Amino acid sequence: MWKSLDVDAPTHLREVLEELGPTFIKLGQILSTRPDILPQSYISELEKLQDTAPTLPIEKVYAVIEAEFGAPAYQVFPEFEPTPLAAASLAQVHRAKLSDGTSVIVKVQRPGIEEQIETDIEIIYKRVQFVEHHWERARTYGLTELVDEFAAILREELDYTREARNTDRLREVLSRHKRVKVPLVYWQYTTKRVLTLEMLEGTKITEVGNKQGPGPDPTDLAKRLASLFVEQIFVDGFFHADPHPGNILVTSDGTIQLVDCGQVGRMDPETKAGIVRMLIAFEQQDVRALADEILFLGIADEEVDVRRLTSDLDRVLRAYYGMPARAINIGQLLKLVLGVSAKHRVRLPANFAVLGKVLASIDGICRRLDPNVNFTEIARGYVGKAVRKELVFEGSVAELYRALVATRGLLVSLPEQLSRLMRKAVEGHLRIEFKHEGLDEVTESLRASSNRIAIALIVAAIIVGSSLIVATSGGPMPGWLGIPSLGLLGYVLASVFGVWLIVSIIRSARHK
Predict the structure, then answer these.
(1) How many other C-beta atoms lie within 10 A of the C-beta of residue 267?
(2) Of residues 292 and 136, more confidently modeled
(3) CA 315 to CA 108: how far, in whole Å?
(4) Same-domain status, 38 and 143
(5) Are residues 62 and 195 in the same domain?
(6) How confident is the model at residue 423, as a pLDDT?
(7) Which residue of 208, 353, 376, 448 could cross-link 33, Cys pair, CB 3.0 to 4.6 Å?
(8) Phi and psi for 238 in degrees, rounded to 5?
(9) Rounded to an integer, what distance in angstroms lies between the CA atom of residue 237 and that of residue 232?
(10) CA angle 499, 504, 508 (to 5 degrees)
(11) Which of 298, 1, 260 has its CA nearest to residue 142?
(12) CB proximity list for 10: less than 8 A, separation 6 or greater
């Protein structure tokens, strides 16, 4: 019975997230990219989450358009198909035509969805804070940071002007490719809740080769798709982050069309260089260098045992070293590295998980087009190109110029800073503070020990004093059993303090 419950748990989690609505579906989709948090059985199940929803009545769609443009929907879009192309949890997509007859795709946000998502995010924050307060390991996973990332992604998706800017930038980045297309944005018909894009027609990339008649060569298409994405990632540092087959269309002449640019990935120069160095370390089978890069790029909540981290990386990656290049899935490789890092409580940047998902997805699509395509060999060429780009002379000159400017500023301000320092020293206002790290426990232990020693001395003094009083009493005195009252009081006090001292020592020993 227990085994059955364990097997059904991932499915049950997926079903619960679907029932809870769009916010939790999006959360599940993000968690499906985080093998450092969830085991593979949950990852596989959460990848099945479909961002679908019931069709929105056309009157509500028109109401959103009218509210955004301040005019009736038929004036904004003279032709508007009431039957949607797709209905997702956040929006609904329709075909339409502009006043000049241009065919477009219109994405309209569901009314009231923003308020619902903000309420759900607040609930998630409260639950995560409760879990982190009562479970120490949850803090290691950085659940609050994960919710911060999730909230930022959702809020970005709710602002269609941001998606429009991402689309424009991606089209600009990819403009150097001859047979690659990204839809145009019609900004005069785009607002925060309505996005209007050029309509692109094509075949879903995984259906290439299934239709009768001439068409693009699947092998050539696979190679161009692999090159397109690894160049976006390793050279440009800006890439389409949701490349499932439905978002990649192909025309009859083999032009690759990327649609739905709501999710994009960004790699800052430091992270991009770190990932390139990690792949080079793997290529050279230098596990220690790989561990060093993980520690450099990640955030560790506690001291990391580098030898154990290196050993675990070697054990996980050893099986890949003997494989031919075409059998290696770089995306899965990055996911394994992410899992080992999490085991040692090192949190790598969130875009690592996104990158692993993108590379794994593109690798899978390329293999469906041509099982013999060598995705890793293609990626290796662009990794080398990324290294050369980092070392180009123009970049070095720019960095040298920035360093010279910073040095000049330091030299100009140095006399003034030295003058202020000397003035404070002469006036007696100069103060130097030293802070000892890690000595609080030692100080507290010494304080407790000195207090116990003092109490022990007091107890000994009371016993000696009481004994002297009893010994020097010249005959029966008022008291108990002939013992003087003052001496008896001393014995009682000595007993009380002695018992307290013994109990205190026993308790401190247990806490240790």
Answers:
(1) 25
(2) 292
(3) 49
(4) no
(5) yes
(6) 75
(7) 353
(8) -145, 120
(9) 6
(10) 155
(11) 298
(12) 41, 42, 44, 45, 46
Q: How many CB atoms within 10 Å of residue 252? A: 13
Mean pLDDT score of the chain: 79
Q: pLDDT digit string (tens) for 489-512? A: 777 777 777 777 777 777 766 555
Into how many domains does the chain fold?
5
Judge if 133 and 259 occupy the same domain.
no
Residue 466 is which amino acid? S
Q: Are residues 21 and 45 in the same domain?
A: yes
Among candidate residues 6, 8, 159, 242, the one labeled active-site is 242
Residues 404 and 424 both lie in one domain: yes
Indicate whether this model's pTM tops 0.70.
Answer: no
**C-alpha radius of gyration, the chain, whole number:** 34
Structural tokens at position 428: 């007696």
**Beta-strand pair 299-300/346-347:** antiparallel
How far is C-alpha 182 from the geometric centre of its chain's CA atoms?
A: 27
Q: Which of 432, 460, 493 delimits the end of a domain?
A: 432
Q: What are phi and psi of 377, to 5 degrees?
A: -65, -40
Residue 147: which of 131, 164, 170, 163 has the closest Cα? 131
Q: Which residues are 250's β-sheet partners?
A: 203, 256
3-state SS assignment for residue 460: helix
Residue type, 11: T
pLDDT top residue among 169 and 300: 169
Q: Which two tokens stand for residue 206?
A: 């995984």
Structural tokens at position 436: 């000892």
